[in-house]
Amino acid sequence: MKFTKIASPEQIERNWVLIDAEGKTFGRLITEVATRLRGKDKPYFTPNVDCGDFVVIINASKAKFNGAGKVANKEYFTHSGYFGSTKSVKMTELLEKNPEKLYKLATRGMLPKTKLGRAMLKKLKVYAGEEHPHTAQIAK
Length: 140
Known about the structure:
two-stranded antiparallel sheet, 15% strand, 3-stranded parallel beta sheet, alpha/beta, Ribosomal_uL13_sf, globular
């Protein structure tokens, strides 16, 4: 009989991946990031184990957005649970003030909505410029 191998957390090898967002389409970039964070690109992918790599995105504010008026019209909503506490932020404001939050919100939607998904999202590091403090990890 042949059995499917299931990876245990001790067997997983995590790498650091550097992605430059300059000139890349935002949505396609986020799908690539979510795939790497989840570990679906590895041969030993196991759905109930965090198999993914660490991902560092630089030049986050220089990504391209396709779609007529998507950047101007798209809104992100938050709600605290109290009546009338819905707040919205336009995508243009997020891109100018805090591109890191925009990338994390988009990636979070593509990951599992569980403790495992939250653990995967912690491995995402986003920086608006070229500088990042993870040069030692990536230089391997």
